[in-house]
Amino acid sequence: MNAIVFRIWVFFFLSASVGYSQTETPIAIGVDITKKTGPMRPIWAWFGYDEPNYTYMKDGKKLLSELAKLSPVPVNVRAHSLLVTGDGTPALKWGSTNAYTEDAAGKPVYDWTIIDKIFDTYIERGMKPIAQIGFMPEALSTHPTPYRHNWSPGNQYNDIYTGWAYPPKDYKKWSELVYQWVRHSVSRYGQKEVESWYWELWNEPNIGYWKGTTEEYIKLYDYTADAVRRALPTAKIGGPEVTGPAWDKSATFLKTFLDHIVSGKNYATGQTGAPLDFITFHAKGEPKVVNGAVQMNMGKQLRDIDEGFKIVASYPSLKQLPIIIGESDPEGCAACSEDFHPQNAYRNGTMYSSYTAASFARKYDLATARGVNLLGAVTWAFEFEDQPWFRGFRDLATNGVDKPVLNVFRMFGLMTGNRVAVTPGTAYDYATIRDKSVRAEPDINALASTDARSAAIMVWNYHDDTVPAPDSPVTVTINGIPGRRAQLVHYRIDNQFSNAYEVWKKMGSPQKPTPAQVTELEKAGQLQPMGNPTSIAVENGRTTVSFRLPRQGVSLLKVTWL
Fold first, then answer.
1. Angle CA 76–498–327, to nearest 5
2. pLDDT digit string, tens, across residues 253-307
3. What pLDDT sits at residue 23?
4. What family is this (predicted)?
């Protein structure tokens, strides 16, 4: 059998096995594993959340264990409110550690008990804290009353910005707090361990999270960076975690901060500039409801990312610093459930997983196009303790059961080595989606990687609109495979596979599932293959895999040489 006849035979055999009609034209995707395009850097292995006290609770510890297990590298974790005053009782968009109080004479009292409990939970799992230095302790706040907020999803978002968001009344006391925290961390975990962390200042200081001016933030940064480096000269310190660089006010804040880093007078030392080991900003999409259906806006998120990269690239002395997108999500408020925000109804099902697959692939492309050093992109989603099942929060699991989106990260965990060249299926690339989002034909494309013994190809069928659509026939041709046979495992996320939400709905959407139902849901929440591993023929280094991919579905083809 010659090569051409063989390929035709394979195509029709596989087409028949997945139910192709001879009148359908498959979406053709090409992968060449001999053409490496860059390292498969695990920019996805970064997660964060508002409520730090969930970290050591039952479902929090379970989810962190799962995140650590799915990643071939240590997972980085970022949490808010690590210096907030309070007794550690969690609530939506609230957390506290009581790390700093003052006695009757105004002398500092440090208590690391709750922070240690949080960081111990990470370290026990081989994870790395992104140690967020904030927010302002009550005793140091220039505007301490009111301090504790009692926000709920139906309230105004601005209700959360209370006394913790203000500058310190004493910058030297703040600096000493930071110094003592870093020194304590070195004493508890060792210098080598703490050197591997990322210390950062605050969160989104260009909006309500910071009630001071831009210059006051810069002053706080100078005192903070100086304290971190005095405590541990080899520590990594960064910022400023602004949100939305495509927004003029945010871009101005970021540029003002970077100008200061390069040439400003340091408030703490009097010298020129300030230490900066990595640069952070946030990027968010903006879904809305259109004609009764949710319409995503991936383009907005990519524009934020691209503008942030563009700004960083404009500073020659800073261009190669690592960039961490400190929050990188389809929209802005993880704790805003779909009960009050119907545009967030995408979060329980496969829209969230397909969006995640398609958007992360374009983050690699944007970084390459701008020539910047993208280290990580934090998915700002975790879990919410003691909430109704599948309430529509932006979380990775509900009541200890994984949502479909978590399985995309399990897929990413199977992609190692180097990224390789992909010939696209439909006519989308990073620039098209950045400028127009995905509003015409679906985005059916792939991200591929290879190591010494295997290749992994992630294929998605994404569209901004959550409306029904037929499955799409797809063929993936892989070139460069050594030998004559390989093994294929086909993993899938859709309404039938790797989807606890669909199973829960078929149960009748129980809010008090039985132990047997919980076990079934936990199993359904894991990444599932479509059948058993199969042996596939390789002809002249090439093989073709054909299948049908539902709208908002994601496949991972794991090919191992035999």
1. 30
2. 999 999 999 999 999 999 999 999 999 999 999 999 999 999 999 999 999 999 9
3. 55
4. Belongs to the glycosyl hydrolase 39 family.
- Gap between the Cα atoms of 97 and 499, Å rounded: 36
The two tokens of residue 140 are 């140091």
| Topology given in CATH for the domain delimited by 46-413 | TIM Barrel (3.20.20)
Q: Tokens 């020539």 correspond to what residue?
A: 371
Q: Where residue 154 falls among pLDDT bands split at 50, 70, 90?
A: confident
Q: What is the pLDDT of residues 202-247, one digit of tens each?
A: 999 999 999 999 999 999 999 999 999 999 999 999 999 999 999 9
Convert 185-224 to b/e letters by CB count within 10 Å (16 or more is b): bbeebeeeebeebbbbbbbbbbbebbbbebebbbbbbbbb
Q: What is the pLDDT of residue 4?
A: 33
User: Whole-prediction pTM value?
Assistant: 0.95
DSSP SS3 for 485? strand
Helix axes 298-313, 248-263, angle to 10 degrees: 20
Rounded to whole angstroms, the Cα distance separating 323 from 307 reads 13
The residue extents of the domains of the chain are: 3-39+417-561, 46-413
Q: In whole angstroms, what is the distance from residue 223 CA to residue 126 CA?
A: 30
Distance CA(62)–CA(43), nearest Å, equals: 22
Look at the domain 3-39+417-561 and name its fold: Immunoglobulin-like (2.60.40)
**What are the tokens at 215?**
């210059």
Q: Distance between CA 258 and CA 274 in Å, rounded?
A: 10
Residue 289 buriedness (CB in 10 A; 0-12 / 13-18 / 19+): middle
